[in-house]
């Protein structure tokens, strides 16, 4: 009878412990990724939209007409993905049972979005990049490679890791 009350507080204490190992790494990198996403939204997309707001050259008007809808979509999806990343971090940090399927789906969605973003941005910005000398492809490829590596690491980890299942399925 004495052992039952002692195990309940130990379980509660486990939920309040800091994350370590791969789970801690996932939480830290995902939080940093969410912040980086928000920073890049402001640094890249809002600057382009700001430039489109005031200039009157016909070439710039055509460029702005072509790129504004995809940029707005990227901004909206970027904020949504950043919010979903925060939810993923919180679920892992609080060791919720739903964290494993949530993270797997979240990482798959991030990968799919990066593939879609690459295709759309390349199609829309490709012709303009050739005319203006912009180096858009390098940034798009880097983002896509990061998403592939990220999904390639975290999806299998959360599917197969016994430690993750022990920590998150309490």
Structure in words:
With 170 residues, this protein is mainly alpha-helical. It has one domain (20-168). 88% of the residues lie in helices and 0% in strands. It has helices at residues 3-16, 21-54, 58-93, 99-132, 136-160, 162-168. The longest helix has 36 residues, at 58-93. It starts with a helix and ends with a helix.
Major sheet: size, sense and barrel closure?
Answer: none
State the shape: elongated
What count of structural domains? 1
Question: Number of helix segments?
Answer: 6
Bin the helical content: over 70%
Ranges where pLDDT stays below 50 over 5 or more residues in a row are: none
Radius of gyration: 21 Å
Estimated structural class? mainly alpha
Give the overall pLDDT as a whole number.
83
Question: How far apart are the termini?
Answer: 21 Å
Total beta strand runs:
0
